[in-house]
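> @MW can you paste both from yesterday?
MW: sure, first one:
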Amino acid sequence: MKSRIGPNGVHLFDRLSGLNVLLDELRPKEAAWSSSPRQVSIALTNVCDLHCGYCYAPKHKASLRTGQVLGWLKELDTEGCLGIGFGGGEPTLHSDFVDICKRAAGETQLAVTFTTHGHRLTPQLVEHLKGSIHFARISVDGVGRTYEKQRGKQFASLLRGMESIATLSPFGINIVVNECTVTELDAISELAQKVGASELLLLPQQATTVVASIDEVVGRALQDWVTNYRGKVRLAVSEAGAAGLPTCDPLPDERGLQAYAHIDASGMLRASSYSPVGAKIVDAGVLSALKQLRNTFEIKRERQS
C-alpha cells in the first residue's frame, strides 16, 4: 500500500482494490506532510469529437507532450500523490494515450484513472489498456433522446462503450446535472446499477462562456433527489457542486491544493478545471508551480483581509 502523510494522519491506499485506511491517531507535524495534492487531474488534450454546450474545456487546440506528462507523474508520485485522472477534451484522442497509461501504471505507484465519453472504447483499445487502468469514468448525460440531444451521439453507441469499459476495470458513471438531465436521475441510477457501475458521480452544471450554472429550481430538485435516493450504486458529487448536499469528508483538514489540483492541456497548474488562476509548469517541475500557485492565493487572501 502507498502511504501519504497529511493533517488528518497517515493515509494508506491500495490502488488495486481501492482500499483506503486512515491512521488518524497519528498526527505528524506539518513539516512532514506530503507536498503533492492527494489527487491530480490532467487534461491530456483539448481535442474532442463532441461539442457539448456545457463543456468547460478550453476550445483552443492544445496537447501535452508525453515526456512532460511522465516526468510530472514521477514527481507527483515521489511527493505523495495517490492518484491521477486523465481527461480532456477526450483523452483517448491523445496519440500516446495507451503508452502514457501503461507507463504511469508500470513506473509509478499512482492509481491511474480516466474519464471518457465512451464512443472510442473499441475492444482493441480496451485490450491495450488492460492492466494499466485502476478505475474509469464514462460520461452519461441523460438517457435516450436526452443524451443524444445533449451530446450529439447515438445512445446505442454509448451503451456499447459501457459494455467495453466494464471489461477493463471498475468504473463509474458521471452525469452533468442541468435542467435537461435532473428529471432523468432515476433512469441514470437504474442504468448505473444495470451495467455494473460502482459509482454515480453528480456534476452540477458550472458556468462557462456558453451556459450558466444550475439555477435554484434545478438545485432544489437535485437536493430532493439525493435526500430520497435509495439506489444501490454509491453517490459522489464534485466539490464545486457540493453545496447543500449531504456529503461526507473523511479528510476534513486536507483542503484546497493539499487535496486536489488540475493540469490543463497547455501545462498550467490550477486549483480546478474551472479556476481562472494558474501557474505555468516549467522545467522546475510541478511542485515549483504548486508553490507559486499557493503563494498567489496567499497574497490574494492577505489583500482581501
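MW: second:
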Amino acid sequence: MAINIFEAAKNCLEESNLERKIQLSKETAKRAKQAYVIEKLADWTEPKVGRPIKPALVSPHALPKRGIGTEQGKYSLIHAIAHIEFNAINLAFDAIYRFQDMPEEYYWDWLQVAGEETNHFILLRRHLNNGNYEYGDFEAHNGLWDMAKQTANDALDRMAIIPRVLEARGLDVTPAMIKKFAHIGETGIVSTLETIYEEEVGHVFIGNRWFRYLCEQRGLIAEQTFLELVRHYKLDDFRGGFNKVGRKEAGFSEEELEYMENKFVNAY
C-alpha cells in the first residue's frame, strides 16, 4: 500500500528515540518512489521535532575549542560533525513535510539527501563508538536548527539560507579537517569525511536548484535575492576558509562567489 510522503517525513522528523529514528530514516529514504503518493495534507500541523535527551544544548560560545591534539579533542570534533549530520536528517525531512506545494522532483531530491545524511551520521557515530564515546557524550549547540525555525515560513528563504549558507560552510571547512586528520594518520575518519564532502556538494547543489526555481517562479533575480537574504538574516560576516572550487561545483554563480570571496577572511 502506498504511503503519503508527507506523513512518512513527519514520522521521521518527530521520532526522538535515536535508534528508531535512524532505522526509520534509513527505511523511509530507501523506499522506492512507487511506494509513495504525494498528496497535500489537509490537517497539516507544526511538527514536534524529535531529538534524544542528549547531547545537552548550550550556546556556541560555551563550547570549548576542538583541537585534535588530544584524544578527547579529536572525538569532540567528530561529535560536533555528527551533531551537524543529525540535524541535517531533520532538516531534510522538514524540507519535505513543511513545503507541500513543490514539484514532485523536489521531494525525491530531499528524500535522497535524508538518506545520505543518515548514512553520514551512522559513519560518524561508528567512529565515536570505536573511541568508546557515544553521540550525546559532548555538549552541542542548536544554531543550525534555530536558523531552520527562522526560515520555516518560506521555502525560498529555507533554500537560500540552510543549504546555500550554513551547509555550504561544510564545503569550506571540510578540506582543512581532512588534512588535519590525515596528518595524524586517522585514515578511517579521513575516508568518512571525503564521502561526506562529495555528497554534501550534491546537497548544496540541490539547494541551489530549488532556490533558483523559486526565484524564477516569483520573477526574482537569484543573485540579488540571495545577497538580500544573507544580509537580512545577518549571515554575511563570513570568516574562515572559502572553497571557491567546491562552491562552484555546487552551483554558485560567479557573481555570488565574487561577493562571498571578498567577505571571507583567509580565502584559499
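> thanks! The mean pLDDT is 93.
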